[in-house]
Design a protein that fits this description.
- The chain contains 2 helices and 21 strands.
- The strands form 4 sheets. Strands 1, 2, 3, 4, 5, 6, 7, 8, 9, 10 and 11 form an 11-stranded mixed sheet that branches.
Length: about 260
Protein backbone atom coordinates (compact mmCIF):
# COMPACT_ATOMS: atom_id res chain seq x y z
CA UNK A 1 0.00 0.00 0.00
CA UNK A 2 1.31 3.42 -0.97
CA UNK A 3 0.47 6.09 1.59
CA UNK A 4 0.50 9.87 1.50
CA UNK A 5 0.15 12.00 4.57
CA UNK A 6 0.48 15.34 6.31
CA UNK A 7 -0.64 17.66 3.49
CA UNK A 8 -0.56 21.41 4.14
CA UNK A 9 -0.62 24.57 2.09
CA UNK A 10 3.15 24.83 1.98
CA UNK A 11 4.41 22.27 4.43
CA UNK A 12 4.06 18.60 5.13
CA UNK A 13 5.31 17.05 8.32
CA UNK A 14 5.89 13.34 8.68
CA UNK A 15 5.82 13.46 12.45
CA UNK A 16 4.41 16.80 13.56
CA UNK A 17 5.12 16.25 17.21
CA UNK A 18 8.80 15.84 16.48
CA UNK A 19 8.92 19.31 14.96
CA UNK A 20 7.42 21.23 17.87
CA UNK A 21 10.06 23.38 19.52
CA UNK A 22 12.75 22.14 17.20
CA UNK A 23 14.94 24.57 15.24
CA UNK A 24 16.21 24.08 11.75
CA UNK A 25 19.75 25.37 11.82
CA UNK A 26 22.51 24.08 9.57
CA UNK A 27 23.83 21.74 12.24
CA UNK A 28 24.04 18.47 10.32
CA UNK A 29 25.93 17.12 7.36
CA UNK A 30 23.14 16.56 4.82
CA UNK A 31 23.73 17.66 1.20
CA UNK A 32 21.06 17.50 -1.50
CA UNK A 33 21.95 17.12 -5.17
CA UNK A 34 20.43 16.20 -8.52
CA UNK A 35 16.92 17.32 -7.57
CA UNK A 36 14.57 16.81 -10.48
CA UNK A 37 10.82 17.00 -11.04
CA UNK A 38 8.65 15.09 -13.50
CA UNK A 39 4.96 15.19 -14.32
CA UNK A 40 3.43 12.46 -12.18
CA UNK A 41 2.75 9.16 -13.93
CA UNK A 42 0.03 8.22 -11.43
CA UNK A 43 -1.61 11.48 -10.25
CA UNK A 44 -3.36 14.18 -12.26
CA UNK A 45 -2.04 17.76 -12.19
CA UNK A 46 0.87 16.82 -9.97
CA UNK A 47 4.65 16.72 -10.14
CA UNK A 48 6.85 14.07 -8.54
CA UNK A 49 10.22 15.13 -7.13
CA UNK A 50 13.31 12.97 -6.72
CA UNK A 51 16.63 13.95 -5.13
CA UNK A 52 19.90 12.43 -3.96
CA UNK A 53 20.68 12.81 -0.26
CA UNK A 54 24.28 12.59 0.89
CA UNK A 55 24.97 12.30 4.61
CA UNK A 56 28.11 12.64 6.71
CA UNK A 57 29.24 11.02 9.93
CA UNK A 58 25.99 11.18 11.93
CA UNK A 59 22.78 9.27 11.13
CA UNK A 60 19.70 11.38 10.58
CA UNK A 61 15.96 11.09 10.07
CA UNK A 62 13.79 12.63 7.36
CA UNK A 63 10.84 14.20 9.19
CA UNK A 64 9.16 16.44 6.62
CA UNK A 65 9.23 18.49 3.44
CA UNK A 66 7.83 21.73 2.11
CA UNK A 67 7.73 24.01 -0.91
CA UNK A 68 6.80 27.66 -1.33
CA UNK A 69 5.31 26.81 -4.73
CA UNK A 70 2.92 23.96 -4.05
CA UNK A 71 1.28 21.59 -1.63
CA UNK A 72 3.54 18.67 -0.75
CA UNK A 73 2.92 15.03 0.01
CA UNK A 74 5.62 12.65 1.17
CA UNK A 75 4.82 9.38 -0.59
CA UNK A 76 6.00 6.32 1.33
CA UNK A 77 5.09 2.73 0.37
CA UNK A 78 5.40 1.72 4.04
CA UNK A 79 2.98 4.34 5.40
CA UNK A 80 3.54 7.01 8.01
CA UNK A 81 7.02 6.17 9.22
CA UNK A 82 10.07 8.42 9.05
CA UNK A 83 12.88 7.22 6.77
CA UNK A 84 16.37 7.09 8.31
CA UNK A 85 19.42 8.47 6.53
CA UNK A 86 22.37 6.20 7.40
CA UNK A 87 25.69 7.82 8.34
CA UNK A 88 28.28 8.17 5.59
CA UNK A 89 25.79 7.23 2.91
CA UNK A 90 24.15 8.42 -0.28
CA UNK A 91 20.47 7.56 -0.62
CA UNK A 92 17.73 8.71 -2.98
CA UNK A 93 14.13 9.77 -3.11
CA UNK A 94 12.87 7.61 -6.00
CA UNK A 95 9.65 6.38 -7.53
CA UNK A 96 10.08 2.87 -6.15
CA UNK A 97 10.52 4.16 -2.59
CA UNK A 98 9.97 7.45 -0.77
CA UNK A 99 9.52 10.57 -2.90
CA UNK A 100 7.72 13.94 -2.93
CA UNK A 101 4.51 14.75 -4.78
CA UNK A 102 3.71 18.42 -5.44
CA UNK A 103 0.26 19.65 -6.38
CA UNK A 104 -1.94 22.72 -6.17
CA UNK A 105 -0.05 24.69 -8.81
CA UNK A 106 -1.89 27.57 -10.46
CA UNK A 107 -0.41 26.23 -13.71
CA UNK A 108 1.66 23.09 -14.02
CA UNK A 109 5.39 23.84 -14.27
CA UNK A 110 6.99 23.38 -17.68
CA UNK A 111 10.17 21.62 -18.66
CA UNK A 112 13.20 23.68 -17.64
CA UNK A 113 11.56 25.43 -14.68
CA UNK A 114 13.02 25.23 -11.19
CA UNK A 115 10.81 24.37 -8.20
CA UNK A 116 12.03 25.26 -4.69
CA UNK A 117 11.90 22.38 -2.20
CA UNK A 118 13.08 21.92 1.36
CA UNK A 119 13.59 18.67 3.26
CA UNK A 120 13.54 18.64 7.05
CA UNK A 121 15.77 16.36 9.07
CA UNK A 122 15.79 15.62 12.78
CA UNK A 123 19.45 16.61 13.20
CA UNK A 124 20.38 18.61 10.12
CA UNK A 125 17.25 20.77 10.16
CA UNK A 126 15.93 22.27 6.94
CA UNK A 127 17.99 21.73 3.79
CA UNK A 128 16.84 23.42 0.58
CA UNK A 129 17.32 22.85 -3.11
CA UNK A 130 15.60 23.51 -6.44
CA UNK A 131 14.21 20.70 -8.59
CA UNK A 132 14.61 21.00 -12.35
CA UNK A 133 11.48 20.02 -14.25
CA UNK A 134 12.28 17.58 -17.02
CA UNK A 135 11.44 14.27 -18.64
CA UNK A 136 11.91 10.95 -16.84
CA UNK A 137 15.66 10.38 -16.75
CA UNK A 138 16.60 7.73 -14.19
CA UNK A 139 15.55 4.24 -15.26
CA UNK A 140 16.93 2.75 -12.05
CA UNK A 141 14.76 5.10 -10.04
CA UNK A 142 11.64 4.20 -11.99
CA UNK A 143 11.53 0.47 -11.30
CA UNK A 144 7.97 0.62 -10.08
CA UNK A 145 6.66 2.16 -13.29
CA UNK A 146 8.90 0.13 -15.56
CA UNK A 147 7.83 -3.03 -13.76
CA UNK A 148 4.40 -2.53 -15.33
CA UNK A 149 5.87 -2.84 -18.83
CA UNK A 150 6.03 -6.07 -20.72
CA UNK A 151 9.38 -7.64 -21.43
CA UNK A 152 11.17 -10.93 -21.77
CA UNK A 153 9.98 -13.63 -19.34
CA UNK A 154 11.47 -13.23 -15.89
CA UNK A 155 12.62 -16.85 -16.00
CA UNK A 156 12.75 -19.48 -18.72
CA UNK A 157 10.13 -22.21 -19.02
CA UNK A 158 10.75 -24.80 -16.33
CA UNK A 159 13.21 -22.54 -14.48
CA UNK A 160 12.49 -21.89 -10.80
CA UNK A 161 11.76 -18.37 -9.65
CA UNK A 162 14.41 -16.95 -7.33
CA UNK A 163 13.98 -16.54 -3.59
CA UNK A 164 15.66 -14.26 -1.07
CA UNK A 165 16.39 -14.14 2.67
CA UNK A 166 17.69 -11.08 4.54
CA UNK A 167 19.84 -10.59 7.60
CA UNK A 168 21.14 -7.37 9.20
CA UNK A 169 24.16 -7.63 11.50
CA UNK A 170 25.16 -4.63 13.60
CA UNK A 171 28.90 -4.09 13.94
CA UNK A 172 30.74 -2.72 16.98
CA UNK A 173 31.31 0.62 15.23
CA UNK A 174 27.57 1.05 14.66
CA UNK A 175 27.54 0.14 10.98
CA UNK A 176 25.34 -2.65 9.63
CA UNK A 177 26.31 -5.59 7.45
CA UNK A 178 23.57 -6.52 5.00
CA UNK A 179 23.51 -10.20 4.06
CA UNK A 180 21.29 -11.54 1.28
CA UNK A 181 20.91 -15.26 0.74
CA UNK A 182 19.32 -16.16 -2.60
CA UNK A 183 18.40 -19.29 -4.48
CA UNK A 184 18.12 -19.62 -8.28
CA UNK A 185 19.49 -16.10 -8.64
CA UNK A 186 22.78 -14.60 -9.83
CA UNK A 187 23.93 -11.09 -8.94
CA UNK A 188 25.28 -9.25 -11.98
CA UNK A 189 27.56 -6.19 -11.99
CA UNK A 190 26.14 -2.79 -12.85
CA UNK A 191 26.49 -1.86 -16.53
CA UNK A 192 25.49 1.23 -18.57
CA UNK A 193 23.30 -0.87 -20.89
CA UNK A 194 22.03 -3.84 -18.87
CA UNK A 195 20.52 -6.81 -20.70
CA UNK A 196 17.98 -9.16 -19.18
CA UNK A 197 19.11 -12.68 -18.41
CA UNK A 198 16.62 -14.96 -16.71
CA UNK A 199 17.42 -15.44 -13.04
CA UNK A 200 20.02 -12.65 -13.02
CA UNK A 201 19.89 -9.10 -11.69
CA UNK A 202 20.39 -7.08 -8.53
CA UNK A 203 18.60 -6.19 -5.30
CA UNK A 204 17.27 -2.99 -3.81
CA UNK A 205 17.50 -2.32 -0.09
CA UNK A 206 14.87 -0.09 1.52
CA UNK A 207 14.64 1.10 5.12
CA UNK A 208 11.30 2.51 6.25
CA UNK A 209 10.42 2.80 2.57
CA UNK A 210 13.49 4.80 1.53
CA UNK A 211 15.74 3.30 -1.14
CA UNK A 212 19.11 3.09 0.59
CA UNK A 213 21.19 0.84 -1.62
CA UNK A 214 21.33 -1.07 -4.89
CA UNK A 215 23.17 -4.34 -4.33
CA UNK A 216 25.04 -6.18 -7.08
CA UNK A 217 26.33 -8.82 -4.70
CA UNK A 218 25.00 -10.58 -1.64
CA UNK A 219 26.80 -8.53 1.01
CA UNK A 220 27.09 -4.82 1.71
CA UNK A 221 27.73 -2.43 4.60
CA UNK A 222 25.65 0.63 5.43
CA UNK A 223 26.34 3.34 7.97
CA UNK A 224 24.96 3.71 11.47
CA UNK A 225 21.20 4.28 11.78
CA UNK A 226 19.34 6.62 14.15
CA UNK A 227 17.70 5.20 17.23
CA UNK A 228 14.34 3.53 16.85
CA UNK A 229 12.61 0.71 15.02
CA UNK A 230 13.30 0.32 11.31
CA UNK A 231 11.64 -1.87 8.71
CA UNK A 232 14.20 -3.27 6.26
CA UNK A 233 13.15 -4.70 2.90
CA UNK A 234 15.25 -6.27 0.13
CA UNK A 235 13.69 -6.90 -3.29
CA UNK A 236 15.07 -8.72 -6.33
CA UNK A 237 15.08 -6.99 -9.73
CA UNK A 238 16.04 -7.97 -13.26
CA UNK A 239 18.90 -6.35 -15.14
CA UNK A 240 16.36 -4.43 -17.24
CA UNK A 241 14.74 -2.87 -14.17
CA UNK A 242 11.71 -5.08 -13.54
CA UNK A 243 10.84 -6.61 -10.17
CA UNK A 244 10.90 -10.36 -9.89
CA UNK A 245 7.41 -11.45 -8.86
CA UNK A 246 5.59 -14.63 -7.96
CA UNK A 247 1.94 -15.35 -7.24
CA UNK A 248 2.21 -13.45 -3.94
CA UNK A 249 3.74 -10.32 -5.48
CA UNK A 250 7.31 -8.97 -5.53
CA UNK A 251 9.99 -11.44 -4.47
CA UNK A 252 11.42 -9.79 -1.38
CA UNK A 253 12.44 -10.29 2.24
CA UNK A 254 11.60 -8.11 5.24
CA UNK A 255 12.82 -7.77 8.79
CA UNK A 256 12.47 -5.35 11.69
CA UNK A 257 15.56 -4.02 13.46
CA UNK A 258 15.86 -1.88 16.58
CA UNK A 259 18.63 0.63 17.23
CA UNK A 260 19.05 1.45 20.92
Amino acid sequence: MRASFGIGAVIVVIAAAVLIGRGFGAKGTIVLSGARAELSMTALNAVDVFVTIQNGAEPDLLIGARSNSAQVEVINPEGQISPPIPANSTVSLSLDGVFLRLSGFETLPEEGQLIPISLMFETSGEVSSRALVGRPADLHGNHMALGMMEGAPLVEAGQALPSIALDMIQQRNGTWEVVLETTDFTFDPDTPEPVHQAGHGHAHLYINGLKVLRMHEGRAVIGALPQGNHLVRAALNTNDHRPYVDDAGPIEARMQITVD
